[in-house]
Amino acid sequence: MKHLQSKPVQYVLLGLVFSVIPYIIPIPQSTMTILNTVVIYAMIALGFNILLGYAGQISLGHAAFMGLGAYLSAYLTGKLALPFLLSLLLSGLIPMLIGIMLGLIALRLEGHYLAIATLGFGVAVQQIFVEWLAFTNGYSGVRAKYPSIFGFEFRSRESFFVLAIAVLVLLCIFAYNLLKAKTGRAILAMRDSVSAAQAMGINIYKYKLVAFALSAFYAGIAGSMYMHLIRFTEPTQWGIGLSLNLLAMVVIGGLASIGGSIVGSVFLVLAPEIIKEVPGLADIKNLSYILTGATMVLAIMFFPHGLARLGMQWRSYLSKRKKNAAVNI
Amino acid sequence: MNILWVEDLSISFGGLKAIDNLSFAVEEKSIYGLIGPNGAGKTTVFNCISRFYTPDTGKLLFRSRVNGTIKEYNLLDFAVHQVIGIGLARTFQNVELFKSLTVLENLMVGEHIRTQGGILSQGFNLPKVRKEEKRVREKAMQVLDFLGIAHTASQLAVSQPYGIQKLIELGRALLSEPRLLILDEPAAGMDHTETEELAGRIRQIRDEFGITIFLVEHDMGLVMDICEKICAISFGKKLAEGTPQEIQNNPAVQEAYLGKGDEEYAS
Amino acid sequence: MEMFWQTTIAGLETGSLYALAALGLVLIFRTSDIINFAQGDMAMFSTFVAFTLFNYTGSYPVAFIGALVFAAIFGFLMERVFIRPASKANLVSKMIITLGMIMIVGGLAGAVFGTDSLYFRKALLADNITLGGIVVQPNALFIISLTLVIMAVLFYVINRTKVGIAIRATAQNENTARLMGIPVLRIYSLSWIIATVLGATAGILVAPTTNVSINMMAEIHLKSFIATVLGGFNSFIGPVVGGFILGVLDNMVGLYISLKWKTVIVYGLLIIILIVKPTGLFGQVHRKKV
Fold first, then answer.
1. Structural domain total, chain A
2. How far apart are CA C234 and CA C29, in angstroms?
3. In what order do the strands lie in the sheet containing B2-13?
4. Of A231, A319, B134, C276, most Cβ neighbours within 10 A?
5. Residue A76 is assigned to a structural domain of this protein
6. Is C267 on the interface with A (CB under 8 A)?
7. How far apart are the first and last CA of chain B?
8. Chains contacting A with at least 3 CB pairs below 8 Å?
9. A258 domain-assigned
10. CB B220, CB B227: distance < 8 Å
11. Which H or E run includes C189?
């Protein structure tokens, strides 16, 4: 029974349950695509949360890492005909290496320099996607195959869902383990008191780099998975809008929380779908974009722990009120 | 042997010379105090030694006796996060705890540089990492025991009363097995009883572990009570260096700092 | 040789716009310690207002001035509604709020004004003149001189008036400024108003080149950041100079090296600055107190 207390075990069990549901209850194909997208966004949100929520660094260019992962995976499984799993790994590693190079330069400086450097990075990389025809085919876009592991091809949305959940669970467990160990303590220490962290031997620069590299790796993996779900991509998908949505996912869902990353991706993917259903609202253009921005601002101002820990915030608010009331007697 | 050697230390902020050609030496295994009126530059001295600041001029030498051999380090060659590795740990005036971590985890950070296991090992929770976590946790519990606050281990550090927070910070520094422990106003915010307890604890740390203590304090009672040697500064300049007796009787120090209210300590 | 001079003038023209935007950015940064990432979208919104006014009244001056008045009110409101309540928050939270503002303002612009790309006339409609073989657009000269005039006025205000001292004091040390009786909150509002008006000016002046659309300010927006890094975040004149330098450089790279890789190359320049001298041409390194 004690094993059930361990978070990694819970992740695996939840994953198993969710991956089986589509085989029991029939779900329409369009909804399956939405669910798959939620899982993929959760992957990148997870990594981004380590960077923003734990290490407290803002990046405005993570769409570029995800796009890189997507284009890389298409190229590696396509032109180079590499096996899917290897391509998936490389689609995480190569953006990670590029992220490390960017981080080496920008992370030595104060936070707003990283925001600017990544803002420019996102714009520059998107421009490269447009112009480097040999690699990306420009606006015409690029196609990719279904993922296949040891001969089994994941053709159906349901089977892809199982694969995506498996990858997400692995990423969750890795993140959880890392955060529970020395690295997690170092990153949280760094966030809470830079001076004390340094005095205790924590190299701030190194750990910012670790967080940045990890977030780029997760983004690349998500990009690769996305490529093999939708099987087509072109440069306009990888712009500042996506980077902002990523930020919103993590802030709204809950900073510094693995569950929060998932809640955030659910919110981001479902909100536009729900708006589409409401008559009247559906006619207002860009409403979901506006609402996401507004929710993010409200979250920072009023519920900084995000939706995932709304319960906790409510409880601590209630207990503060009780304390004040007691004092006033 | 002098564990810390400060020579002609000077640093300016903008146009203001915060420390002016300060020299003093701390003897190994002693309890040494730095006193001075507000704004004298005491915390600045600490920040130079612990490498948060880089002085404009001066020598900062650290000598560490490990297993019989003496190693000498030029502190200016080390970055702020490297000094703990050579045996120099510090606490902060405004207790700088890690709010998101429990008391135990706060202490575990003190073992950071010695904790084995790279990113991949941690991520996959390999046996090596699990063993290390256990070892560090036990070491931290031992120190918590020593300080008498083992019962707070799994609580959040930030929710502890002030006196215990100070002990947590002390414990965190102790975990790194320092040769020199720098305490920045350890008695700040403590009442008379707590200060007496602290004095006893500082002596105990020095006697049992052979750690040199270098402290900055306003509380004259504590300083005169436990320090074997004191350096008094004012406006960044050295006034006098000597035993508590010598310092109390020094007219320059009396004029700058002691004043009438502390006559009870003058014996 | 003619191409060189023409490109230089074109560079000074775009540089003027970068300078306007960069000054607005650094004004807000130095007084209220926030990077207003939403500046580009706010300028875009104001430009749409100018466009709409022009369609209704047919008068360019009315549209221009009207949009600037709108921008002043817009900047004031944004600061009051979004920034003021969060003044005690940490740096990252404040940045996130301005990023959320991008989504709100940008989304609203699309919803209210539509997603088309609309043509807006130049400020000065005179024909091109030729000086010594170089073709010069009077409009370009207008933009450059207008920018120089605005800069001269602003720098006079900042350096020679009481308001300017208040701004500089708040920029240097907010708490001390408060203690000295400076109405710091009003300085916040003032800097936001000025910055938004500067952004709107840049937007209206660039509209003929980019057309009025949701993404029209994207290029100027990014370049204003690069100009500020180049010039130095801790100075007012730095970003302005940086803007002009960047404008000329940008156009030169486009002419002599490659038009399609221009943005990537200029971004490479940003990276080089960050490696070599991150505090910028005019920035100083401050020793921080721990």
1. 1
2. 9
3. B16-27, B2-13, B57-66, B69-74
4. A231
5. yes
6. yes
7. 30
8. B, C
9. no
10. no
11. helix C184-210
Full domain range(s) for residue A127: 3-246
**Hey, where are the domains in chain C?**
2-221
Question: Taking CA A236 as the corner, what is the angle to CA A235 and CA A242, rounded to the nearest 5 degrees?
Answer: 110
| Cβ contact C258:C268 at 8 Å | no
ipTM score for this prediction: 0.90
Helices (H), B148-190: 162-175
Q: Which helix (H) or strand (E) holds B184?
A: strand B180-184
The verdict on residue A259 lying in a domain is no
| Contact between residue B232 and residue B241 where contact means Cβ atoms under 8 Å apart | yes
Instruction: State how beta strands B69-74 and B57-66 pair.
Output: antiparallel
Partner chains of C (3+ C-beta pairs under 8 Å) = A, B
User: Which amino acid, residue A116?
Assistant: I
Q: What are the tokens at B176?
A: 């790194």
Selection from C214, C111, C96 nearest residue A244 by Cα: C96
CB B13 to CB C289 under 8 A?
Answer: yes
Element (H, E) at B61: strand B57-66
- pTM comes to 0.92
How far does Cα A241 stand from its chain's mean position? 14
In chain B, which residues have their Cβ closer than 8 Å to the Cβ of A200?
84, 89, 109-110, 112, 172, 176
| Cβ-proximal residues to B263 (8 Å cutoff; 6+ apart), any chain | none
CB contact under 8 A, C107 and A244: no
- Each residue's pLDDT tens digit in chain B (267 positions)? 899 999 999 999 888 899 999 999 999 999 999 998 887 889 899 999 999 999 999 999 999 887 788 999 999 999 999 999 999 999 998 889 999 899 999 999 999 999 999 999 999 999 999 999 999 999 999 999 999 999 999 999 999 998 899 999 999 999 999 999 999 999 888 888 888 999 999 999 999 999 999 999 887 888 999 999 999 998 889 999 999 999 888 888 888 865 544 555 544
CB distance B180 to B211 below 8 Å: yes
